[in-house]
């Protein structure tokens, strides 16, 4: 396939299904039936004429009289006519089709149709593919052989079944047989049955039976009845008589009808036409020049099978014969590999006698001669013949599938196409079959040399066809990914060819936002004609999935195309930010990244794994894939697809963890750089940022990541400093000048000094100078210890010190707040209260700074969402709002006390905010996470508890109190008191003995007393005491015992569930705390207000603002980045090796490897699996040596006509050999006198199609030239034949060898024709037109032309106007000339010192 052919799909409709995966696509049987009745016919006898040889009631057609219509039984309609199959059988609408159900323990259903022998192959193919919904095959396997039951050896039967099904399963082949329950068809059916029983979850094998309708037993049950789609068919081998039953293991049947009954072989012609039509279809429904290959597999068989093999090979169909299956198969297998001269009539007789036993007595001498000639012709076409030999004593007989595929590849090597075209066809077949093992052994050999550009089409097929093994194979054999994806159009076509997936749906929406609609759980999007996916759309969607903090990974469009895309994608503008970053440098392209991303977005794990293994920025790639998949999982609606995405995201996170850990073990400094390096391949972001955005807690929890966060947390201080030392130095900073605190800079100097001493010691021992690339080590004499000012700045700029300072400040704030509330809260604010207000104002400014501080370019919307998502920020906002509300009330006279109440409540919120200080603690931090989880459990528990509280409270209140109208007392009785009962506070008005009339109000007139219950005549409560006690007991049983214990159990479950992951969650969440204090101003509140003023001034005057180093994001130099990525690739390879080792050490893989090794050993020891006794090259050479005898002159039919030659075996060719049975058939016979073919007998006499008896002269012109001035390549001029499969030298018939043929004038032109003149030589030509009395002789002229001659100019002018029919070809061993012309070319090449 050329590049242009690959890109021909520039316009494609996108149809994406994101609803349920399995939607029914079965056609209505009524619609299929209507199509069959309209297009498929049967044949029926219209004239009943009794056949005297069969009986009174049987017609010549074989059917009984009752089978015929009334019109057919009227003899007066056919007076004087004799029954003729061509005249008295006509086509009618078929009456037998539908689904056939076979009885038995396992019911099997097959499609079937009764078809006429005149049915076009195109119609049958449409029936199979469009109506019966079969996928077009990648291979057609025609199985032929014995039609009667024959014995097949157990080991051969096992090997045949397994191999046939394997090749059909792996290549997507159709198997075509005779379809009956006998002979080789039965064996094929059993193989299909065994596969169906062992592979219930995979697609079925297509086995099509093409049988004769008139020879089928019980065919009357197959007649179609209205309203009945299935026919129940029973296999009755006992009562079938001379007829045959259908095989119950085939999947489809074409029952061929010629209007006769009991006649076998009716289907042969239609089957041959159908197979030929299928073989003319393009492979994969693409216009690529490669058609569906056909192979014939032969088991057993009689003499009819011999003709089938011969005709198949004449049509260039390779045949695989199973030796040991019996009869004609074994006869051919025995003579395979022998020179044709040794295949004599006597040897064939002996073989026929051995393998046909009793049948041999019925053979005639003439038939044996014809079969000998046929076998010789079959052996001569050795490139189309493969003998499979299975040995009973070996266990490696598993390669029937390999033999079948090797036969096809062997045929393609020596077929019409040679050289690069042949290798290309073989590779395309191997890709279509998905047989990488065949490609490795047969295609990618030392004989075939591939350039990277020659494999681009194959790579495209392998990617779009989901053939990961072929992708690896192509990469291993020289394909350059950078060159393959250099053109943007190739990558766009890959996205255009994506299978139905969620990402394709999203792309379709971007191409045409309004062009999708929701239908019944699925979503369908279509792109208008003339529009296609561009990298701009891909980049926008990937940025949406990764997050707005990233940049576009592909360049954005310019000019009018940009405006067009922006209009179409305006619904995504807020998400993708098309208007920003336009002035930035163009994003880097990386082929491995592009291929990895393409595979990830449609969840192709195998292809993504291959691309990831080739990539350089592997950690970033794995984390980006995890982020993309998790985002698509959140946006998707299919539960199964979402789960697959989550599992794949976790898989890539494991990859990132594995590679990073290997990096961290080898070099911690480089591993840290990988974390914070800005990746130019993944949107200018970092690995750490991607991991955080993807919520990859496991990655962030790795020791290397945490060590880097600890380093950022400590700033310039050493991570080894105890906390108590840091706290002391915060208040007594002069201690830092006494080395009381360790600094990171000092540790670096110490390590450098140790390294230098180590190098010196090595040099002293070895006596040689150690070379190093460590620039810091070489220049360490420039490094000096920190001075007092850097130490002081390093102390107070450390995020750790900032945190401790803010804690102290916050405690001071709370102390001041409490003092104001309890001691100094006056009508006029005091100095302490004013200080409190200033302090709070500084806190408000800091919260505003945190909200708008956006170093990662999230955008204000995303930043606000992140801010609100944090619990501590919610408490901050709530506390500030309450404080502002309380302050507003406090400033008024009327609401002064209310303001104080609000401020007191606000103090509680501020105190709760104090819990945030524990988040940095490794011990208490995880407990805060558990408390958060339990709060969620508590919320749902309180909802459940409230149901019981309200239910009991309302019932109790209604029973005790009559018509209470005070709302506060209603709520107290219905809600508050039942709630207190849970904690043991029981009311006293339940029992009459404790009732006190003075403690309540009779008519609710006293506001501070509850209303008394209804009283009886004794002034005691009238309610039933026993009922209230029972209700109380039930309430306590459920509320106190059941629900409270349930709450405890929930808490315990939550604790156990979260406990295992709290460390990871804490490590993940502490990043935000570290990042907050890394960017936080140094001074704590309220002094932080001065830092805010400085920030305000610096923002107003950017030129004056100093740049601060960002520990979370680092831009490396190009050379440093390349070196770091190269090192990362090495670490990734080490990781992949360790992964493979772990996999190989698993028990299952050990068993599998052992079994494969055993099979491999057996295969090597079994030297004859599909391998002949002699190599193919030796057979080919032997055949070429015998080409001197006229082979084409003795082919079965004369010159593509129906005239059959008398068979002349090889030994009977010479006239000197006696051949008493020789009776050649005359053709245009005239008096031939003494003219006799000098090469021997041909099987036909007369002039034939030649112009005269005796020799018929032909003259060919061999024009040669050097391709270039260096004389490195010799070329010759050829004419492409009309069949476009072979080449020939220009020439034509002549009357004398002294003149040029007139046809050359039309080929070469008048100028060139008149300029030619040279000497000639003659030779016999093996031509299919030759007879015993007329033959062709040729003379070949060689003229070597100078590249600058006038004749060359005229010839080149001719080449430009003959549409490629005349062309120069390189002289090579793969030339496609006839044998005599090849001999002449060999001689000419030898003259020019050029061997073929």
Automatic annotation (TrEMBL):
| Keyword Chaperone part of the UniProt annotation | no
The residues covered by the Ion transport domain are 811-1062
Q: Name one GO cellular component term.
A: plasma membrane
**InterPro entries, from UniProt?**
Ion_trans_dom (IPR005821), NUDIX_hydrolase-like_dom_sf (IPR015797), TRPM (IPR050927), TRPM-like (IPR057366), TRPM_SLOG (IPR041491)
Presence of the UniProt keyword Nuclease in the record: no
Cite the Pfam families for this sequence: Ion_trans (PF00520), LSDAT_euk (PF18139), TRPM2 (PF25508)
| Main localization category | membrane
Gene Ontology MF, one: ligand-gated calcium channel activity
Q: Which residues form the TRPM-like domain?
A: 442-702
| Membrane topology recorded in Swiss-Prot or TrEMBL | Multi-pass membrane protein
| Domain of life per record | Eukaryota
Q: Where in the cell is it found?
A: Cell membrane
> SUPFAM superfamilies, alphabetically?
Nudix
Q: Which family does it belong to?
A: Belongs to the transient receptor (TC 1.A.4) family. LTrpC subfamily. TRPM2 sub-subfamily.
**Protein name as it appears in the record:** Transient receptor potential cation channel, subfamily M, member 2
Specify the species.
Answer: Cyprinodon variegatus (Sheepshead minnow)
């Amino acid at each position: 396939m050329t590049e242009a052919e690959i890109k021909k799909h520039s316009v494609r409709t996108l149809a994406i299904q994101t609803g349920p995966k399995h939607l029914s696509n079965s056609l209505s049987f009524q619609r299929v039936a209507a199509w069959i009745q309209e297009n498929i016919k049967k044949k029926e006898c219209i004239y009943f004429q009794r056949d005297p040889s069969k009986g009174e009631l049987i017609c010549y057609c074989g059917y009984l009289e009752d089978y015929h219509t009334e019109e057919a039984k009227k003899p007066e309609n056919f007076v004087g006519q004799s029954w003729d199959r061509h005249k008295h059988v006509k086509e009618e609408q078929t009456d037998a089709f539908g689904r056939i159900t076979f009885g038995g323990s396992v019911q099997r259903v097959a499609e079937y149709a009764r078809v006429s022998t005149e049915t076009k192959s195109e119609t049958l193919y449409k029936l199979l593919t469009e109506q019966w919904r079969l996928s077009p095959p990648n291979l057609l396997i025609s199985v032929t052989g014995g039609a009667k039951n024959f014995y097949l050896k157990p080991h051969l039967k096992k090997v045949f079944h397994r191999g046939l099904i394997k090749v059909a399963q792996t290549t997507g082949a159709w198997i075509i047989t005779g379809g009956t329950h006998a002979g080789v068809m039965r064996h094929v059916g059993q193989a299909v049955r065994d596969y169906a029983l062992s592979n219930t979850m995979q697609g079925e094998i297509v086995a099509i039976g093409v049988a004769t309708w008139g020879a089928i037993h019980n065919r009357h049950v197959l007649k179609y009845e209205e309203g009945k789609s299935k026919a129940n068919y029973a296999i009755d081998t006992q009562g079938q008589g001379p007829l045959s039953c259908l095989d119950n293991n085939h999947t489809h049947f074409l029952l061929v009808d010629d209007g006769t009954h009991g006649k076998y072989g009716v289907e042969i012609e239609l089957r041959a036409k159908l197979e030929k039509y299928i073989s003319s279809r393009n492979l994969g429904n693409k216009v690529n020049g490669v058609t569906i290959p056909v192979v014939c597999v032969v088991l057993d068989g009689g003499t009819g099978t011999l003709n089938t093999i011969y005709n198949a090979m004449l049509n260039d169909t390779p045949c695989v014969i199973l030796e040991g299956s019996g009869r004609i198969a074994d006869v051919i297998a025995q003579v395979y590999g022998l020179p044709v001269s040794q295949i004599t009539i006597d040897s064939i007789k002996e073989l026929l006698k051995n393998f046909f036993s009793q049948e041999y007595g019925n053979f005639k001498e003439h038939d044996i001669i014809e079969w000998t000639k046929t076998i010789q012709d079959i052996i001569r076409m050795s490139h189309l013949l493969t003998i499979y030999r299975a040995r009973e004593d070996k266990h490696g007989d598993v390669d029937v599938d390999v033999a079948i595929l090797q036969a096809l590849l062997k045929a393609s090597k020596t077929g019409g196409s040679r050289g690069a075209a042949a290798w290309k066809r073989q590779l395309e077949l191997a890709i279509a079959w998905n047989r990488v093992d065949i490609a490795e052994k047969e295609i990618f050999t030392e004989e075939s040399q591939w350039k990277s550009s020659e494999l681009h089409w194959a790579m495209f097929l392998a990617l779009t066809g989901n053939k990961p093994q072929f992708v690896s194979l192509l990469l291993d054999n020289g394909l350059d990914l950078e060159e393959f994806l250099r053109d943007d159009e190739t990558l766009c076509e890959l996205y255009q060819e994506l299978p139905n997936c969620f990402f394709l749906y999203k792309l379709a929406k971007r191409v045409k936002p309004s062009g999708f609609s929701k239908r019944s759980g699925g979503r369908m999007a279509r792109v208008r004609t003339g529009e296609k996916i561009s990298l701009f759309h891909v980049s926008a969607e990937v940025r949406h999935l990764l997050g707005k903090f990233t940049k576009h990974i592909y360049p954005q469009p310019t000019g009018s195309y940009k405006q067009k895309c922006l209009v179409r994608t305006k619904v995504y503008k807020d998400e993708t930010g098309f208007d920003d970053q336009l002035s930035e440098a163009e994003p880097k392209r990386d082929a491995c990244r592009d291929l990895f991303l393409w595979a990830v977005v449609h969840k192709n794990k195998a292809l993504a794994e291959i691309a990831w293994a080739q990539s350089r920025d592997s950690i970033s790639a794995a984390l980006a894939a995890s982020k993309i998949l998790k985002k698509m999982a959140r946006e998707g609606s299919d539960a199964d697809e979402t789960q697959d995405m989550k599992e794949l995201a976790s898989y890539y996170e494991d990859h990132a963890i594995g590679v990073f850990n290997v990096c961290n073990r080898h070099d911690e400094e480089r591993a840290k750089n990988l974390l914070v390096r800005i990746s130019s391949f993944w949107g200018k972001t970092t690995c750490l940022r991607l991991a955080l955005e993807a919520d990859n807690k496991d990655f962030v929890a790795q020791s290397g990541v945490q060590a880097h966060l600890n380093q950022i947390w400590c700033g310039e201080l050493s991570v080894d400093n105890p906390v108590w030392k840091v706290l002391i130095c915060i208040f007594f900073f002069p201690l830092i000048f006494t080395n009381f605190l360790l600094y990171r800079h000092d540790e670096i100097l110490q390590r450098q000094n140790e390294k230098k001493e180590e190098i010196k010691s090595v040099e002293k021992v070895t006596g040689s100078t150690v070379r190093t690339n460590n620039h810091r080590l070489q220049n360490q004499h420039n490094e000096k210890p920190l001075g007092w000012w850097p130490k002081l700045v390093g102390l107070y700029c450390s995020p750790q010190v900032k945190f401790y300072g803010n804690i102290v400040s916050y405690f001071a704030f709370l102390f001041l707040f409490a003092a104001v509330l309890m001691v100094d809260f006056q009508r006029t604010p005091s100095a302490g209260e004013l200080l409190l207000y200033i302090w709070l104002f500084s806190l408000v400014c800091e919260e505003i700074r945190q909200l708008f501080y956006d170093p990662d370019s999230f955008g204000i919307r995303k930043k606000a969402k992140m801010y609100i998502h944090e619990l501590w920020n919610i408490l901050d906002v709530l506390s500030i709002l309450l404080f502002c509300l309380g302050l507003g009330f406090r400033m008024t006279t009327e609401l002064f006390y209310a303001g104080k109440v609000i401020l007191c409540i606000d103090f509680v919120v501020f105190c709760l905010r104090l819990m945030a200080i524990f988040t940095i603690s490794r011990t208490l931090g995880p407990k805060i996470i558990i408390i958060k989880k339990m709060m969620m459990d508590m919320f749902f528990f309180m909802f459940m508890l409230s149901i019981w509280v309200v239910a009991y409270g309302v019932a109790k209140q209604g029973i005790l109190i009559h018509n209470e109208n005070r709302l506060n007392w209603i709520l107290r009785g219905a809600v508050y008191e039942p709630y207190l009962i849970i904690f043991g506070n029981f009311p006293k008005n339940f029992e009459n003995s404790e009732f006190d009339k003075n403690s309540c109000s009779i008519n609710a007139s006293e506001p501070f007393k509850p209303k008394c219950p209804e009283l009886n005549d004794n002034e005691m409560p009238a309610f039933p005491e026993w009922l209230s006690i029972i209700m109380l007991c039930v309430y306590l049983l459920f509320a106190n015992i059941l629900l409270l214990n349930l709450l405890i159990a929930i808490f315990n479950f939550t604790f156990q569930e979260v406990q295992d992951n709290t460390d990871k969650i804490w490590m993940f969440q502490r990043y935000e705390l570290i990042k907050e204090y890394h960017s936080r101003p140094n001074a704590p509140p309220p002094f932080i207000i001065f830092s805010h003023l400085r920030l305000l001034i610096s923002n107003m005057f950017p030129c004056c603002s100093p740049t601060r180093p960002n520990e979370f994001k680092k831009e490396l130099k190009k050379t440093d980045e390349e070196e770091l990525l190269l090192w990362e690739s090495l670490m990734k390879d080490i990781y992949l090796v360790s992964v493979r080792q772990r996999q190989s050490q698993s028990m299952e893989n050990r068993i599998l490897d052992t079994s494969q090794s055993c099979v491999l050993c057996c295969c090597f020891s079994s030297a004859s699996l599909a391998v002949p006794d002699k190599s193919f090259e030796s057979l080919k050479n032997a055949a070429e040596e015998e080409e001197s005898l006229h082979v084409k002159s003795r082919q079965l039919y004369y010159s593509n006509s129906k005239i059959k030659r008398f068979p002349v075996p090889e030994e009977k060719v010479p006239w000197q050999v006696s051949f008493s049975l020789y009776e050649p058939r005359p053709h245009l016979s005239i008096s031939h006198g003494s003219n006799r073919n000098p090469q021997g007998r041909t099987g036909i006499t007369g002039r034939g199609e030649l112009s005269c008896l005796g020799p018929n002269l032909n003259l060919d012109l061999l024009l040669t030239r050097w391709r270039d001035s260096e004389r490195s390549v010799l070329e010759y001029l050829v004419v492409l034949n009309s069949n476009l499969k072979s080449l020939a030298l220009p020439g034509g018939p002549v009357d004398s060898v002294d003149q040029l043929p007139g046809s050359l004038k039309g080929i070469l032109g008048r100028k060139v024709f008149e300029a030619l003149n040279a000497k000639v030589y003659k030779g016999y030509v093996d031509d299919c037109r030759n007879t015993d009395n007329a033959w062709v002789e040729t003379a070949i002229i060689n003229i070597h032309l100078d590249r600058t001659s006038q004749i060359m100019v005229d010839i080149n002018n001719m080449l430009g106007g003959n549409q490629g029919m005349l062309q120069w070809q390189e002289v090579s061993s793969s030339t496609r000339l006839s044998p005599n012309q090849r001999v002449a070319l060999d001689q000419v090449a030898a003259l020019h010192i050029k061997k073929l």
